[in-house]
Amino acid sequence: xxxxxxxxxxxxxxxxxxxxxxxxxxxxxxxxxxxxxxxxxxxxxxxxxxxxxxxxxxxxxxxxxxxxxxxxxxxxxxxxxxxxxxxxx
Length: 89
Description:
By secondary structure, the chain is mainly beta. It is 11% helix and 45% strand.
C-alpha cells in the first residue's frame, strides 16, 4: 500500500464536538474522531448528529479521519422549504 492511499468508510455522526470535530460510528461498528474537510467548511456544509457521512482515513491511524462527504437526506429533499433559497449578505 502506498503512503498516499486512503481508505474510505461510511458511517453516522453520533456526537458534535468543538472545533469542527465529530464522533462518527462507522458501519463496521468502530467509533472514530473525525474533522470536517476544508472544502466542506468553505462551502458552508453543516454536519449535525445523525447525518450519514463518508470518512477517509489513513491506514496508519485508524482512530482518526476526515469527513469528505455528507450524504443527502431523502426526507429533507421531499419536504417543502419555508425559507427562501437566496441569501442576503
